Amino acid sequence: xxxxxxxxxxxxxxxxxxxxxxxxxxxxxxxxxxxxxxxxxxxxxxxxxxxxxxxxxxxxxxxxxxxxxxxxxxxxxxxxxxxxxxxxxxxxxxxxxxxxxxxxxxxxxxxxxxxxxxxxxxxxxxxxxxxxxxxxxxxxxxxxxxxxxxxxxxxxxxxxxxxxxxxxxxxxxxxxxxxxxxxxxxxxxxxxxxxxxxxxxxxxxxxxxxxxxxxxxxxxxxxxxxxxxxxxxxxxxxxxxxxxxxxxxxxxxxxxxxxxxxxxxxxxxxxxxxxxxxxxxxxxxxxxxxxxxxxxxxxxxxxxxxxxxxxxxxxxxxxxxxxxxxxxxxxxxxxxxxxxxxxxxxxxxxxxxxxxxxxxxxxxxxxxxxxxxxxxxxxxxxxxxxxxxxxxxxxxxxxxxxxxxxxxxxxxxxxxxxxxxxxxxxxxx
DNA sequence: CCTAATGATTCACG
DNA sequence: CGTGAATCATTAGG
Length: 429
Hints:
Layout: H1 3-10, H2 12-15, H3 32-54, H4 57-68, H5 73-94, H6 102-114, H7 121-134, H8 143-185, H9 193-234, H10 241-253, H11 262-272, H12 276-292, H13 294-318, H14 328-331, H15 333-352, H16 355-358, H17 363-381, H18 386-398, H19 411-418
The protein binds a DNA duplex through residues 233-239, 259, 277-278, 280-282, 284-285, 287-289, 291-292, 405.
């Protein structure tokens, strides 16, 4: 970097020597006479310039004025304008036509959809709500995040609008400024109204391209915000105890066919104040995890089974209360499904323990109670120690139903993990 | 801090 | 499309 100055210094004598514009160092050897002549010329030129500048600007002004006031001037300008029109402008005009910008339209649409542009405040929150609803309908309990999202969105919106306004104002100002300027200049040079118009449209195009940048960055901001919001949605919250209980209750009381129908899901969702997709997620997870390691869920299963059994008993004893988590589905499809595959078990259950219930059972409750009872039975019947119970359960819970899985013999997996440790674990409340 | 639990997401399949 | 399976990412508990 500082090579350069040093070089210049060291070579100053030579380097500057031949420079024509610098009269001060003309004593460089060879070109003596020539240099003197040039010096003379330059001096003259400088002198002339000085005199011109010093001389009358006034005079020039006066001449201009005279020209402007000449009576032929308008006509002349008209002609010149025409010529201009025919040449320059026509050429420019040819390349001016542009297709309606698809990208701009896309941006506009998106901003409108996100509620950034479009009508005032109300639109914003409505759009935010719509966005939230669209993103899975998780409108139940993430109100904090939701309001956060809304606040951020309205912030973006505000910035967008102020910027847009600023741009518009600047555009208008600039346009009028240019128009005035051109009008001013039209006195001194040929400018047709058409040309002004064209200039204005050029200005507008420039500004709209700036606006497009604004829109683009706004879109980006919204996207980022949105993705963050979605990420926040991914931030899971454990369901509350009650919800888990309800879900588990349903799961274990429909263990033979733990596939809630759409209506059942809706009902569960309502009961647990979660969304239907959350219910689906829960059941998906539950099924796979239960199946994967039945032993681990044994205690839970027994617990819920016992509970629902008691519940069912009470219900059927009282006769009137249709409170148990049975659904049309469990009565219909699951029933037939189960009957065909494990009718024997069903019968055996009935014959063993079902007597007391059988009389009072309502059709809809049969399935769930069969599931329930099976658990109770297996619990009470074979519950000598953890290991045997474990080995006993794993086949029965699933294979007997022939149902919702293809018996991948999980006992080998479950027994080492849960067996020796005695089935206790925690009280799992 | 580590680990298990758990809700959500993704991908393949029928 | 609903599921199963694997996986991710966060939470809760030690």
